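Structure ticket #2291
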Amino acid sequence: MDFVTKGLINAVQLIITLDREVFGIALISLNVSGIAITLASVVGIPLGFIIGINEFPGKKTLTIILNTLVALPTVVVGLLVYAILSRQGPLGVLGLLFTPAAMIIGQFILALPIVTTLTLSAVHGLDPRVKTTALTLGANPFQVGWSLLKEARYGVMAAVILGFSRVITEVGSAIMIGGNIRGYTRNITTAIALETAKGNFALCMALGIILLTMAFGINILFHHLQSEGV
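Resolution: structure written out below.
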């Protein structure tokens, strides 16, 4: 118990003193995951929306595939991206392996099915009368689509939040394609994995506290937006 207490106290001290290494690692996590979820949202929200409001052959099969990809193991993504970006891979000439860009690609692949599938579900769950009412009022296709998206906004926001939570906490692909390079590609999860093995529990606890604080803060923001009716 003393071991845990001492580690926690030291972790809090690292946070209070704004330890450069701790916050440098946290900044890398926020930067990589923030860009990845932004790109996934730009692609996934329109894709999920288009699939959700339209009927076409193969829609059910596509939905099943997307639902399956939601549970895609991070190490499988890491292996796939590694094979593509390695020197022997088709994109090896770009030299992206073991860079933040490679990590962004991996996290984008992980987040995209989540954002797309949950956006699709949010659109599916809308009252059909929303579309009918908009058409009755003379709305054009763009206005109808915007009305539907506004009605589904909480589901879409939840999709983005869950996608972000997925990528910022993943560790498998980050190590495989990021290389866990100190000050460059070492993020919160990879640092925790490394430093735990080295016995640096204070740093691990500090990073864990920051990660939990991020998740807690995002959920508070989401619930605030819901309560305000944004």
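Closing remark: The chain has eleven helices and no strands.
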